[in-house]
Amino acid sequence: MLERLLPRVVAIVALGGAWPAAAQPTTPAPAPSTVAEATLERVTFDEAVTRAVERHPTVGQAAQAILRARALLDQAKSVFRPSLYGGVNTTILDAARGFDGNVTQPRTQTAFGATLSFPILATTRWAAKNQAADRVGIARITAEETRREVALTAAQSYLAVVAAARLREIAVRNLDTARALDEYAKARLEAGKGSRLNHVRSTQERVTAEGRLQAAELFLRQAQEALGVAIFADGPIDANGDPEMKPAAPPSNDMWLMQRPDVRLFTAEVQAADRVVRDSWTSWFPTGTASFTPQYVTPLGFFEPAKTTWRAVFQLQVPIYDGTLGAARRIRIADRETARLRLDAVKVQARAELRLAEESVTRNEQIVATSRLAAESAAEALRITEIAYRAGATSNIEVVQAQQTARNAETELALAEDRLRQARLDLLFALGQFPQGPPRP
């Protein structure tokens, strides 16, 4: 889980350190500043996840792994089918062979034959058929786990775009406020009612807000490009609305574990390894093969009774001593125990992820509530400070400080809302309830 969250944490830290918030959240956001942003394709959260699962190359590779496992299963099933081979053999000598006027070997002789064989006793190969069927099931679960990871990457990329767009809107509103303050300070200075110091402060705040907006737009474009890569699109993709993730119901027992493909995958691997160990006895069992070979020879030789002959062979092999069989069984037992240890580790990790996700949702809901109250209070304080400044009761340094406080408060609110969305996604992922819908064959 830490490997999945690390890029997300790095992105949030970068966003929080570089992007500002607006001083007046009630000011409507302007349209995108570039034509390229206005023409970006927009997808919803569900569309992004669906397209990622359907188009991503790693999902296609997992599907090919299923086909390969099925082919190996068909190959193992061949033990229940006979084998038929045909052959033609032509012998040309420098001269015919014989004695007393009889030809024992014609100069040119052709033999047509065929061999039909069937394993009448092949316990090892019969067991291999069931083992191959287990590998098909494992390949299917692996493909499901691959789709799950791809869907999570697409979902996280979508949430990053939503957060980046929100912070860009805050930067735009903050710039509008800074420009209005700068214009007001300039007008007062030109009218002889303001000071040069107030005008310089306002100009500095406006220029700083412009730089923050450029950084916000860059981060937004980076998030859009990452979303395009996640859903395997030809270019950057924009998010279309906030996702609706219903809170998952808390589990009452461990049945939720089997909804996770990774737990089912390691469980299937343990079962497959256990079958291999149980089938070790088949290596000591005899093997038997029956074959039937008809043959047609022309022209006949002296010692050949007829042109058409046939032969039936029954072969039985009994293993008496093989020094590798005991070691092979110990290797299989070690593989099974290793698979069990991996399963235990995955279950422990899954339970830890669930506990952490539940705690994260609870804490972040509280953080969002307090951050929203702080942002509303900071915005109200800014409005009061602006009224006092326009009335001449204070200088614009108090306005600049109030504006920065309001910007930081709304930024914290935006980041808190993003962390809450991410926590809810992690909870659904931990419970095995994301992505929704049955696994694809």
C-alpha geometry? elongated
CATH architecture classification: Up-down Bundle
CATH topology description: Outer membrane efflux proteins (OEP)
Order of helices and strands: HHEHHEEEEHHEHEEHH
Number of helices: 9
Total strand segments = 8
Mean pLDDT: 88
N/C terminus separation: 26 Å
**What is the radius of gyration?**
38 Å
What about the largest sheet?
4 strands, antiparallel
> What is the CATH superfamily?
Outer membrane efflux proteins (OEP)
Instruction: Enumerate the strands of the largest sheet in spatial order, edge to edge or round the barrel.
Output: 2-5-7-8
Structural class: alpha+beta
What can you see in these coordinates?
The chain is α+β, with helices and mostly antiparallel strands. It has one domain (2-430): Outer membrane efflux proteins (OEP), CATH 1.20.1600.10. It is 63% helix and 14% strand. The chain has nine helices and eight strands. It has helices spanning 2-18, 35-38, 45-55, 57-77, 123-190, 196-230, 261-278, 323-390, 396-430, and strands spanning 41-43, 83-92, 97-99, 102-105, 108-122, 237-239, 287-298, 308-317. Strands 2-5-7-8 form a four-stranded antiparallel β-sheet. It has a two-stranded parallel ribbon with strand order 1-6. Strands 3-4 form a two-stranded antiparallel ribbon. Strand 3 and strand 4 (102-105) form a beta hairpin. Helix 4 runs antiparallel to helix 5 (123-190), helix 5 packs antiparallel against helix 6 and helix 8 runs antiparallel to helix 9 (396-430). The longest helix has 68 residues, at 123-190. The radius of gyration is 38 Å and the shape is elongated. Mean pLDDT is 88; it is low at 1-36.
